[in-house]
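To assess whether the prediction recovers the assembly geometry, we first specified each molecular entity separately, as shown.
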Amino acid sequence: GAVVSQHPSRVICKSGTSVKIECRSLDFQATTMFWYRQFPKQSLMLMATSNEGSKATYEQGVEKDKFLINHASLTLSTLTVTSAHPEDSSFYICSAPDLGTQYFGPGTRLLVL
Amino acid sequence: GQQVMQIPQYQHVQEGEDFTTYCNSSTTLSNIQWYKQRPGGHPVFLIQLVKSGEVKKQKRLTFQFGEAKKNSSLHITATQTTDVGTYFCVLYPNAGNNRKLIWGLGTSLAVNP
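The predicted structure of the complete assembly is given in tokenized form:
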């Protein structure tokens, strides 16, 4: 099946700093990618839909100025958590569809101290 | 909007016992997908069900779509420790390749060896 990579897999940062997470589709092109957040023992919560060449679509309650999304190419979407705070600590996962199936990246564990 | 309810939330079984998780919707579903997420991992696609009354099998896993297309189940026969993880049913509501998924809350399965 298709492969989606994510980088970094783990990041620890100080409160107030910004963190960039990359999501790449390795063997297919994705005009759309999805960004999720998952807190411990909870389901995945869709944050936003990343659209290649246009603005991302954010879900209700997700601050677009805090979670900056850039989908500059057909294989890369980035999520930047700006001015991170401890409550932003979570597991961030991206996904990209290929032929009707969603493929997920391995996720990024963010810990904000 | 459409919502998917999944039960039970947690299930603890002895290795060799069977396990079933159920997914229910108040509205008719176009189709439903099942994903498995291992502890610390990312969701992995298992199967998609489209037709009313559809039954699909993958080794010890049996997936069923209700006749009314409002519910679905995943049954694991003779669980093994490798079955540990959280099983999500996911609604794939719209046509086209770039679709947002609606996630159930998941059933976490623990298997005692």
